[in-house]
Design brief:
55% helix, 4-stranded antiparallel beta sheet
Length: 283
């Protein structure tokens, strides 16, 4: 690849003008500017593997140019921006937050073992019912989309409204040969907005539409659409446990993590206090 030759040329230049006093820790410098180094390893890491040789060369040239311009702007800013103490404080706080976050994640992965039990989830749900209200309508039912030319549409119109197992089995067999899309969700709650989005309808008030329509048959220039809604929960009504379970799990896990970290910090504070590590300069 030409990029190898380009990097090789940079290496020759850097060897001839580089300062041996720098410890590059096994890395290969390509460019130096005011004591800042761009290394070959850094450049190779960012070059997309899918690029051609010519595109790789162009990418490398642009990357090096941008790197040099950034260093020049940074050095210029150092000479003209006041308030170094404030910036250092921001950098310190950001670094501290990153280190604390990494440590907390490692602690929780190490010590918070074991899955939440179904009993814990249901107990939390029952104790916090007000936190689980449907933010948008939920439905159970069955959806089918077939071409206008599909056979036996008269029977399809009978089957899709019938929730009995025999009718569902007939639809499933029919869908294997003729349906463009078939979704069975009598056994789970689905987002009404997602399901209604499968229909050739313009924007509408979902709650009002679902209150008046449970068996929906529509067609456009190419397809018939059949939707049977067996159950429906309006916006603001109590969200069933089955629909809220993932949210329940997330909230309970978050609470467990918060409690765990609060305990860790409390233990650290107690140990530091007992060891006399904390020195107060005011009463």
């Amino acid at each position: 690849m030409r990029i190898v030759g380009f990097i090789g040329l940079l290496l020759v230049l850097c060897v001839s003008c580089g300062k041996p006093s720098y410890d590059h820790r096994g890395r290969t410098p390509l460019v130096e500017l005011y004591g800042h180094f761009l290394y070959r390893e850094d450049l190779q890491r960012v070059i997309p593997q899918s690029l051609s040789a010519d595109d790789s060369l162009l990418f490398a040239q642009h990357y090096i140019r941008n790197w040099v311009e950034d260093i020049l702007l940074y050095e210029q800013a150092l000479q003209n921006v006041s308030g170094d103490a404030e910036i250092e404080n921001l950098v310190f706080n950001y670094r501290k937050a990153l280190i604390m976050h990494a440590y907390q994640q490692a602690l929780m992965q190490e010590r918070l073992v074991g899955e939440l039990t179904e009993e814990e989830l249901r107990t939390y749900y029952n104790e916090n019912l007000d936190a689980f209200k449907a933010e948008s309508p939920l439905i159970k039912g069955l959806f089918m989309k077939v071409p206008l030319t599909a056979p036996n549409l008269r029977q399809v119109r009978q089957w899709y409204k019938d929730g009995r197992q025999s009718a569902v089995e007939n639809l499933e067999k029919y869908s294997l040969q003729h349906a463009v899309k078939y979704e069975y969700f009598y056994d789970r709650w689905a987002s009404a907005s997602e399901v209604i989005g499968w229909l050739p309808l313009k924007e509408l008030n979902l709650d009002e539409f679902l209150k008046k329509n449970r068996h929906i048959e529509l067609k456009d220039t190419a397809f018939w659409y059949f939707l049977n809604i067996s159950e429906y929960i309006r916006t603001g009504e109590q969200e069933p446990y089955e629909a809220a379970r993932s949210q329940v799990k997330e909230m309970l896990l978050n609470r467990r993590q918060v409690n765990f970290m609060n305990q860790v910090k409390s233990d650290l504070y107690r140990e530091a206090s007992e060891d006399g590590e904390i020195k107060y300069f005011v009463n």
